[in-house]
Design brief:
Layout lengths: L1 H6 L5 H10 L4 H11 L4 H13 L1 H18 L4 H12 L2 H17 L7 H10 L4 H30 L1
Helix pairs in contact: 2-3, 2-4, 3-4, 3-9, 4-9, 5-6, 5-8, 5-9, 7-8, 7-9, 8-9
């Protein structure tokens, strides 16, 4: 994650935190850690990172299905589409059993391989309606941001 942070040294820290929160691997987790390291005020960082992580979700939900269909038609990218769908299908029983709650937990738990991007991919692959998926993913991002706020801003304050 340190290398990613190095890429943003030239930007104002608020813009860097926003962009880091938009990226698929770092998301709100990386944005809030970066913000804490850069000593951004908590509320400002929280709102910037939350907005940065939620912003790509509607775009992913609206356009990913079309992009995956186009990629599936190309012999070079079809393997990636099948791999992504295979990864999502491994969780098929859980998603169908817990649907929106499962989607929420997938987004809310701030671990590698989880988050808004993964939740959006799962929602698209399992054809969860956008009007149901978006609020669930947004609530998951809010929860992840609250958890990461504790880890990035409040727990270290108890010791330093």
């Amino acid at each position: 994650m340190e290398r990613i942070f190095d890429l943003f040294e030239a930007l104002p820290p608020e813009i860097a935190a926003f962009v880091i929160s938009m990226l698929p691997i770092t998301e709100v987790r990386g944005g809030l850690i970066f913000s804490a390291v850069m000593n951004l005020p908590f509320l400002q960082a929280f709102l910037i990172c939350l907005a940065g992580n939620i912003l790509p979700v509607p775009l992913i939900l609206f356009f990913l299905r079309k992009i995956l269909r186009l990629m599936d038609r190309n012999k070079h990218t079809a393997k990636l589409v099948h791999w992504l769908e295979g990864k999502a299908r491994k969780a098929e029983k859980k998603i169908h059993t817990y649907e929106l709650f499962g989607l929420f937990v997938l987004v809310a738990i701030p671990l590698p391989g989880t988050g808004a991007w993964t939740g959006s991919l799962v929602a698209v692959i399992f054809d969860i309606q956008i009007k149901r998926a978006f609020p669930t993913i947004a609530l998951g991002v809010l929860t992840a941001a609250l958890i990461m706020s504790l880890i990035s801003y409040f727990i270290p304050g108890l010791f330093f």
